[in-house]
Amino acid sequence: QVQLVESGGGLVQPGGSLRLSCVASGSIFTINDMGWYRQAPGKQRDLVAHITSSGSINYADSVKGRFTISRDTAKNEVYLQMNSLKPEDTAAYYCYAHVILYSGTMMSDWGQGTQVVVSS
User: Fold this and answer.
1) Do residues 47 and 108 lie in contact, with contact meaning Cβ atoms separated by under 8 Å?
2) Of 43, 52, 56, 88, most Cβ neighbours within 10 A?
């Protein structure tokens, strides 16, 4: 009923930048919250950034001042601009969304993940 597709990952040198995008599709009436988590090998999945429908934003302390989350409500898209990347940012990045379907059902869903590797 809902599909989230990420793009924009890849290999980048330390200090470089990447921009991740995620588009939600399906029988979506409205999207409440959207955001990004990341998971490094052998570690748990942690919140990176979160944005509500009203535009309130939270960041993990480790990315504050370097990453910027934004969304295009009309397009059901969320973005993550990542600057000054560090090797410790290497992880699979997952988009998520809390949506309300036309049926009235509320649900949360995840994308398949996009890999970010920061290495020289």
Assistant:
1) no
2) 52
The answer on pLDDT for 1 being more than 90 is: no
- CA–CA distance, 54 with 13 (Å, rounded to integer): 34
pLDDT tens by residue, 37-80: 999 999 999 999 999 999 999 999 999 999 999 999 999 999 99
Q: How far apart are CA 94 and CA 48, in angstroms?
A: 9
Q: Do 52 and 32 touch, CB atoms closer than 8 A?
A: yes
Q: Are 92 and 38 in contact (CB under 8 A)?
A: yes
Q: Is 8 left (phi over 0), alpha (psi -120 to 50) or beta?
A: left
Opening angle at CA 97, ends 79 and 78, nearest 5: 10
